[in-house]
Each structure stands twice: as C-alpha cells, then as structure tokens.
Amino acid sequence: MRSVLPWVVVALVMLACGKQTNTAQPLYFDSLLYAQAHAYRVQPAGIEKYARVDDQTDTTWLAFDTGTLQREWDLFTPLNAFQKPAFADTYAVTVEKDPHSNLTVKRYRSMQEVPVPQVEFYYLATPTRLRAIRAVFEERNLFYSTQRHLRLSFAEHGGQPVITEYAVAGYQKMVLADSVQFSITGKIVWQ
Predict the structure, then answer these.
(1) Are 187 and 47 contacting, i.e. CB atoms less than 8 angstroms apart?
(2) Can you tell me the distance from the alpha carbon of 98 to that of 105, in angstroms, rounded to the nearest whole number?
(3) In the chain, where the domains are located
(4) C-beta neighbour count of 183 within 10 angstroms
(5) What letter does residue 113 receive in the DSSP assignment?
(6) Torsion-angle region of 105 (φ positive above 0: left; ψ -120 to 50: alpha; else: beta)
(7) Are 133 and 146 in contact (CB under 8 A)?
(8) How many other C-beta atoms are found inside a 10 Å radius of the C-beta of residue 126?
(9) Separation between Cα atoms, residue 77 and residue 31, nearest integer Å
(10) How far apart are CA 184 and CA 170, in angstroms?
(11) 169-190 confidence digits (pLDDT tens)
C-alpha cells in the first residue's frame, strides 16, 4: 500500500498541472452582436435612431462604424443571462409555427423568476435563416425595477442574416420616484 501512495500523488499532481482547456462556449448574444458589427458586406450609410422618454422624443442620425454598432447593441448584452448555467434547467423550450407569418418560433419560457423570462427566435425554415429575436429582460431589487422588451430584426445580406432594425421599450422605476417609460428604435439605413 505504501508503494502505491507516492504514485497516486504523482499522478494527481501531473493531472493538476496539465494543460487546462476552456470548454466554455461563448455567450450567444455577445458573439452574435460582435459578428453583426463586422457582417455588413456593403457598408450602410448609418443608423436612424428614434428615442422616447415619457413625453419627450428625439431623432438622431449616427454615422455607421463598428464602434457605434457595438455601443448601440450593448442594450442587448443582458440577454446573455438566459444562457448562464445556473438557469439551464429553468426554461421550457417550444418550437412552433408563427400564426402571423411563415416563420418558425423557438421559444424559451422560464418556469421560475429569472432576469430573462422569455426569449423567442423567429426563423425561416432553419435557425440559420434568422429573422427576429424578441426577449424580455427584468431586474428588481429594493431600490429599483425595470422591464425591457427587446427586439432585433434581421434580413439576409450576402447570404447571412444581418440586423436591419432594433428596438427596446419598457419602464424604469426607482424608489421614491415616478416611473419612466422609454423606447428606442434604431434602423439601419442603406445608401
């Protein structure tokens, strides 16, 4: 028994010191949005952005560049929460035909309270022909609550789906303050 113990210790040390590989998959929304910023084969002219906060509205023109896109699409990175391992068993997944179009909808609905209670992927025939992503993001604590309805619309350009429009609408409520209703819509404008 004594002669086996040193070999077991050596084997464990060698395994512990061995090369570690990271098998974690990149989060879907981060990788999707990063790829989108570089996916346009013909560069659009810019983004027409419409924003509303309560009764105030504003329209803005943003010059098209990858930095602008990444800042605009940062609104969607909280959707990565639905792919966290801690929430893996909380979603029921259904796939069905959309009654309002010719698209198929893959829907993730949470059975528990989570930051992203619902995500829907709309696609034509196969998931690689993505046409829209719709989701709800919620955050609540003692001082603050918010709910956002997020939408990304896609069209095919150069054989791959690219974002043509995005929208966020919802509310924000802080303790001892009024609720604020907001919406943001951005449309990619081609030359």
Answers:
(1) yes
(2) 6
(3) 26-189
(4) 15
(5) -
(6) beta
(7) no
(8) 8
(9) 10
(10) 9
(11) 999 999 888 899 999 999 988 7
